[in-house]
Amino acid sequence: GNIFAGISFEREKRSMSRYIVWGVFVSAVVLCAVASDARAAFRASATDESVEVSGVSRRLRPEVSAQRPLCIVNGAPTEEDIALIPPEDIERVETLPADEETIARYGAEASNGVILVTLRYDEPARFGVEGVSFGEYIARQVRWDADEPAARVILRYTVTPEGRAVVAAELESTDKRLKRRVLKAVEEAPDWHPAMKAGVPVVSEGVLRIQLPEGKLMPLRMELVLR
Questions:
Q1: Degrees to nearest 5, angle at CA 43 with 40 and 46
Q2: Percentage helix, strand, coil for the chain under 3-state DSSP, each rounded to 5
Q3: 96: closest CA among 88, 104, 86, 84?
Q4: What backbone phi and psi angles, to 5 degrees, belong to 128?
Q5: Dihedral-angle region of residue 110 (phi above 0 means left; psi in -120 to 50 means alpha; beta otherwise)
Q6: Other CB atoms closer than 10 Å to residue 50's CB: what's the count?
Q7: pLDDT (tens digit, 0 to 9) for every residue of the chain, 227 residues total?
Q8: Residues with Cβ within 8 Å of residue 37, at least 6 apart in sequence
Q9: Strands in 20-132 per DSSP E
Q10: Structural contact between residues 113 and 96, judged by C-beta atoms closer than 8 angstroms
Q11: How many other β-carbons are positioned within 10 Å of the β-carbon of residue 1?
Q12: CA dist 74 to 32, 138, 169, Å?
């Protein structure tokens, strides 16, 4: 009993750590965005220009509106929206203030602060079928007629260093039949190209969301309240 309790505790601890890292990451993005808006508003006031602050759109010069913190992912600056990075891919997040030391180290682009994101790997895992996502492939392999009730299955999976997708946890399942078919499709799916860290294949994680039939809404959940 103690062994299984220990395993369960470790899983819960890893899951909690992942959400804590994601919370820090989101907070960093929001704080840097607010700081950038504040600096833009201050600079714009000197030229009687308008600015977008707290979601209110106003007129603003392009060079002012373009101000944003410098985002660095795995040591490389990026223009991509880092808020789209899956939380399970993030190992560490650090924010640096827009002070003299930061600007001296990273240059003028760091005048609005820096967000440093370290991923769990250098290259993400890639599904072995070109032009199709893992979710799209699995949905196509599962037979679920249009007259079937809408059902959803959400699974957390890992991609092993050997390139196999292995289901790690069931996050949601509204229909046992759909779950069985999704699990079978995952087991029979083609191999992945595993994630790489320092040139070595490593384990990575992902979340698979399957809702069928496509385009049909899930039924509303009814709750009975006794008073």
A1: 145
A2: 35, 25, 35
A3: 104
A4: -75, -10
A5: alpha
A6: 16
A7: 444 444 444 555 555 555 555 565 555 555 555 444 444 443 444 444 433 333 433 343 444 435 789 999 999 999 888 888 888 889 999 999 999 999 999 999 999 999 999 998 999 999 999 999 999 999 999 999 999 999 999 999 999 999 999 999 999 999 999 999 999 999 999 999 999 999 999 999 999 999 999 999 998 876 566 66
A8: 51, 52, 53, 54
A9: 70-73, 76-77, 90-96, 114-119, 126-127
A10: yes
A11: 5
A12: 19, 31, 28
Structure tokens at 156: 């957390």
Residues in the chain: 227
Pair of tokens at residue 71: 């985002």
User: Helix 176-188 vs helix 134-141: angle between axes, to the nearest 10 degrees?
Assistant: 120
What the block records as the tokens of 83 is: 């808020």
